[in-house]
Amino acid sequence: MTKIKNCKIIFTPSGRQGTVGKGVNLLQAARQIGVDIDSVCGGRAMCGRCQIEVGEGEFAKHGISSSATNLTKPNLSEIRYSEKRNLEEGRRLACQCCVLDDLVVDVPAASQIHQQLIRKVADNSTVELNPPSRLCFIEVREPNMHEPSGDLRRVAEALIEQWPSRVCVSKSSEITADLTVLTELQNSLRKSNWQITVVLREGAHIAAILPGLKTRILGVAIDIGSTTMSAQVCDMNSGEVLAVSGMMNPQIRFGEDLMSRVSYGFMNKGGTEELTKSIQNGLQQLIEKAIDQENLELQDIFEIVLVGNPVMHHLVLGIDPIELGGAPFALTLDTAFNCFAKDIGLNLNPAARLYLLPCIAGHVGADAAGVVLAEAPHKSEQISLLIDIGTNAEMILGNRHHLMAASSPTGPAFEGAQISAGQRAAVGAIERVRINPDNYEPMYKVIGSNKWSDSPEFQKDAQKIGVTGICGSGIIEILAEMYLTGIISEDGVINGALASKTKRIEKSGRTFSYRITDNIAITQADVRAIQLAKAALYAGFRLLMDKMGVKKVDRVLLAGAFGTHIEPKYAMILGMVPDCELKNVTAIGNSAGAGARKALLNLAAREEIEKTVRQIDKIETAIEPLFQDHFVRAMAFPHKTDPYPLLSRAVKLPYRELLDNTINAKTNSERKRTGRRRRRL
Q: Residue 663's closest CA among 591, 548, 582, 559?
């Protein structure tokens, strides 16, 4: 009996290796070794997803010589595919070639199923693909008079036989199907000559039957904020983000903040239904906007993952959020939830499923759960503080040993509302501000121009786009600069005595204001609005620190669109973040959306966040006496326990360099020395 030669194969970039017998199909060899090369058509040279490249030459590290000749020559199926699809030179279809000798095989990114995807700047960890819905092309045996088995049974048998790596049951009777699948099954099988693509969900459920070969399956990760919404359309085969869209939350017209919308639903007959219809229609528009960018098809969408605050979470499902408007802030649903996308009015593929991440507490929602999933504080030894700043600030504090959550009613001031010249971030809004400490003259940048206002080029831009107001990041910077230059005191009072030194300080009734442009000024009421918002924010995280028994945090992560555009230095000056080294304060962008995408692409991530949320302790700030104490103290700039005494003095140039040194100083003695030096200036 002839002994079969063993061939050594090394797969890159995974680094997995093993031995297989000579003559084994390369796709099967890969799966035997644990390298899951993509193949929607089941090895029939139709989809082209199993493309590989063979390394040529001697590989001393592995002690082998690899060559394309160590594979069988292209067969007729592979040649036909190459002629129709123009297979790139040097590439082979793994499903059509067999191993003859040792090989080094490179699996391109497009052919990898469990590839590691580098997430965007706002989301810098990795996602391993394990999507809930997968495409499986099968050939179903035809019925005959001698074996009266049903079509569904034969489809299930074909799945188990042809896709053993994707089916997680052993018997055809354990595979289930939706009623819509059954009503279409016989017609689909016969019209497609018994060749169909099954949308297999979680390895045991047939969600849809598609005639012939289909290779595209899409999913959408959506973050519903109280102000804005964003969507990421992903290829469920590769994990690639194909399109991104964003829009204002259409519920804005019912109120800037969440409680205004809850009140609208309570005080107006049919108000809750109106709010629900508004957000559901908005989601449809958001998805269509993304789909249209890349000429994709709505019918290819089979998975939706949503995150949002508790009010948005309830309203999108048509649940009245009235109980969230008052103590004890009871949620109707705090666990993860699955349903059909059509159940919330989305016009996609009828089989499309919707998954909502669990809410953490009455005012700490699924969006905060998404941030936790993306940033993984529950896997770190460091004490992390995650803050998602919006009309309601959601905060998570802790590490792998213990996590605590709270929310704080910051209101819409940080987003420009309740500010006399405030506006949302749009072209023409002031977003960056600097004030000269010698003459108190302002210098600023607006959205739509990358020039400072004191440059000749800016004047050209200003004529085109105008200077229309000041957005959230601009408000933070202008107040911090006013504080640094002595225009406002620790208590937030605008110094009227400076009116004799600069025309920028103007009398405004019984108080004063600071003029930036002819039509934009910061009033005393504006300062108070920011003081109230930042005091609520500070009191929230200080309460969490008290409850956890920590005096400092190792890192601060600012999530959300607002957190992305805040300059951490200025947030620290105003006391919006705990006292820590500036380098450890980081903007992480739309981390809630990143968590939604992780849950979209990986079933294990859903299990992970559901388990983690159950272990988070929730603190209700509304009933904690210490919250009010911290709130009162935090009305000052930065706050009454200010470890940076130099920041409460008017300073002169070169104050910015000294400011950087002071904030980054590791000890109080270093801060005091720097402070004395600044005062001498």
A: 582
